[in-house]
Amino acid sequence: MPTLCLLTPGTHVGLQSRALHIEIPARDEEPAVDRLLPLVEIERVIIGDATQATTAALAALLELNIPISFCSWSGRVLGLLRPPSNASAALRLEQYRRCLDPAFCLAQAQTIIEAKILNQRRILQRLAANRNLDITAATDWFNTLIQHTGHAPTTDALRGLEGTASARYYDELSRFFPATFPFERRSRRPPHNPVNAVLSYAYTVLAGEIEATLWTCGLDPALGFYHSTEDRRASLALDLLEPFRAPICDALAVDLFSHEMLNASHFERRASDDRADSGAVGCYLTVEGRKKFFVQYERRLERQFTYEFTGQRTSLRQLIERQCLDLKKTILEGAPFVPFLMN
Fold it and tell me: What Rg value do the Cα atoms of the chain yield, rounded?
């Protein structure tokens, strides 16, 4: 069990010997749960804001270097509990220096956005092949746009190209969702329909996982190269998220709806818990919907495959960790950073 998700309201977590004692109350037609989970079987923990965990349980997790993410019901990361960083001061100083170098930032941003667009194109090709659809026009359009990313003179110009690519990409992606769950356009803060609810939740959860991994590597998640630095935003985590959006989050959303793993009962309309939304009403996953989401999310991240760029067996989660370490090497040594590309 790489990730332990404790999201059901009223869940209580304590420590018993070298195991977590998890008590989940009965809910709807599901019986109560009372079980022990050995600490050695856990790699990371996600705790919902309606879950109670004892200090002893949290301390035991930290002793084993297991990061803990506290999330709201909408998936927004409220905070991270992690062991003290073992990074040297030299690494942080070098990261700060690199973030003040416009040429370095632009170079990293160009490679990241080029990888994002290439992965968007690849996802569309895979989905189209499975459904015998012709997307030659879209593929040619993306090929032309990709040629411009490496020549963008500024980060703002690159953001314009990325925005143009995303608009066309989401328009093409909408063809692959069932008619019962249409995806007319990308909406967030708040998401307006079930598809947008899943996309927003997936992006938020994955960004939180990347942020925790960056902390573990000794990097400051707040200082990015493509996303500008803002208070309360993990800009570097958002940078590394970009190439993984399509292969993890978007592909997962298509699967969840196409294979009817989610239905209308797994969504609810309620006011947002995000300060930026000012309590606006949107569409969100229910507790049961989040459970189904995480089952498939974990399967996708843990599935082993041969990565053609290295020839090694790996998983998407391992590649995320590898990306964080590669970026660390780029910061310290100036080695070229190669973002994740789909097979």
Answer: 20
Structure tokens at 278: 């000012």
Q: Which two tokens stand for residue 193?
A: 């329909």
Choose among 339, 146, 326: nearest CA to 226. Answer: 339
Nearest Cα to Cα of residue 249 among 204, 282, 216, 283: 204
Q: Would you call 267 helix, strand, or coil by DSSP?
A: strand
Residue closest to 257 by CA, chosen among 299, 289, 302, 286: 289
Residue 63 CB partners (closer than 8 Å, separation 6+): 83
Q: What angle do CA 195, 199, 45 make, to 5 degrees?
A: 130
pLDDT tens digit string along 26-41?
Answer: 877 778 888 898 998 8
What is the per-residue pLDDT across 225-273, written as a single tens digit (0 to 9) for each?
A: 999 888 878 999 999 999 999 999 999 999 999 999 999 999 999 887 7
CA gap 98, 225 in Å, rounded: 9
CB neighbour list of residue 111: distance below 8 Å, 6 or more residues apart: 336, 337, 338, 339
How far is the first Cα of the chain from the last one, in angstroms, to the nearest whole number?
A: 26
Band (67; pLDDT cuts 50, 70, 90): confident
**Residues 30-54 as b or e (16 or more Cβ within 10 Å = b):** eeeeeeeeebeebebbbbbeebebe
Establish whether the linkage from the previous residue to 83 is cis, with ω within 30° of 0: no
Q: Count each helix (H run) and each strand (E run) in the chain, helices first.
A: 10, 12
Residue given tokens 């989050």 in the structure block: 249
Give the residue carrying structure tokens 């309620």: 270
Q: Are 85 and 212 in contact (CB under 8 A)?
A: no
User: What beta strand segments (E) does 72-117 contain?
Assistant: 77-81
> What domains can you pick out in the chain, each with its CATH number?
3-66 (3.100.10.20), 89-333 (1.20.120.920)
The answer to which of 47-51, 95-99, 175-179 has the lowest mean pLDDT is 47-51
Q: What is the pTM of this model?
A: 0.88
- What span, in angstroms and rounded, lies between the C-alpha atoms of 199 and 319? 21
CB atoms within 10 A of CB 264: 9
